[in-house]
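Q&A log
Question type: sequence-to-structure
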Amino acid sequence: MGVVTLDLAGSLTIADIEAVALGRAKVALAADARAHVAAMREQAERDLSAALAADKDKRVYGLNTGFGSNFKDYVSPDDLKQLQENLILSHCVGMGPAAPVSVVRATMLMRAASLARGHSIVRPVVIETLIDMLNNGVTPAVPRYGTVSASGDLAPLSHIAAVVIGKGRVLDADGKEVATAGYLAKHKGAFTPISLEMKEGLALNNGCQYSNAWGALAAAMMRRLIEAAALNAAIGVQVMRGSGRPFRADLHWLRPHPGAQEVAGWVFDLLEGYQFRDLGTDAKYDYDQKIQDPYNLRCAAQILGPCLDLIERAEHTLTIEARSVTDNPIDLNDGAEGYDLDLITSGGHFHGMSLAVDTYGLLQAAGIMARVSNMRCVRIVDAARNKGLGPQVRGAKANSTESGLMLMEYTTAGLCNHIWGLASPSHLMSISTDSGQEDHVSMAANVAMRAYEAAERLAELFAIELAFAAQAERVRQREMGEPQALPPAALGKRTQAALEAVDAAFPPVESDRELSWDMMQLAEKVLSGEIVKATGYGFGRH
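Response status: OK
Response body:
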């Protein structure tokens, strides 16, 4: 098992986030980061005490004042600890079912990483407690709805912070919510709750790590799915005996959109060994009397390329966020000799609009990829357009009592429509909060949660397309030599290997049967990247 180390520089990657989220890596705090955090806290405590003693009217937001629209409320030194605990407990207001364990773990990791940068005025023990919880499999129960992702994801992060102080609820091994105190009584040594001191409650719940967790995990899935989309396009070209010419590199250099160039290169490589990979229109016409392929094949690079661009932009933004300091106020002192209390600065680093905008790109990409996949499914079941596959991919000699794969195409329509429905632009629908003090919020978490779900549904749609393709190729082989059948054609070895992996999860349909369970098993293999890996292709840069 690997180790992800939280350092002063901020070096998390989406791969790191996913590894910790899925329990594939432990977490550690770099020694120099721990020392810096401790030193910054010590300086702040010393100088704040001196400043407050010298000036009874001195106010530092969040340290000796109330929060949000209560910023005018003064809090005495004797009440600072209670202020922090009350903040966390009062902000535990999430609603709905618990967020997935992976999302909560990713949130905890990124909040700890932000604090480890040393600008949030916390003790090292706050970070170490989050790390202990991660390394010992303690997952807070976080109701998934209710954050507006500006002033941070206050409610979700507060539900996590409540567990840090021994309150709130955690998820047990069966996914049930149990009181933290009861959990700790049963799991001795899982972690030691702490009492919050000055500023630490605020430091735990001011950030958009919850939004970023949903988004980063969605981006990791979408990265695998854009590769699956390219594979599906390559398989679709071959199953429908289309042309590989539209994916030549020299063609795409004439219109050099980066994403389109990249996807075209992937598809062309995956077509290696295919009979019509690079033959002209005359040879193609002689074979099936078709000069051009439909757009779902011929324009696949131009359609999927922008999706790749959107995914890469989201990855870039989400990675920046994972490496950032997000809090309010933020200590701008650099740890050098001398400490200026006035550099504890209130800003807007808790606002999630950058996340919302680029995570929305994942939803756009999912919607585009869903439709082109659905369109290939529509054509493959259509006896008038599927080049001899017969109605519903049953072949020309179909048994009239059987429906074959008819309803699978219906399912792709339902999934595609559902993905489109998820693409509501929540970030364009700001609703002011906190008596108007927080008058423009990002709604990033609402966008990111739907991007995560869209990725899951897209994998299911892709699985159905693969099942269609595998069945279509079986029909072509079975009916070889029949009058209506196309002549045999050589396929690429990479795509043949992928179709063999499909067969292992989705056995041939010899007669009508329940299909859902096999399709969902195949969808899991699509989402994990297993089907793509079966090709042996690296999907590197062209």
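Response note: The first strand starts at residue 2 and ends at 6.
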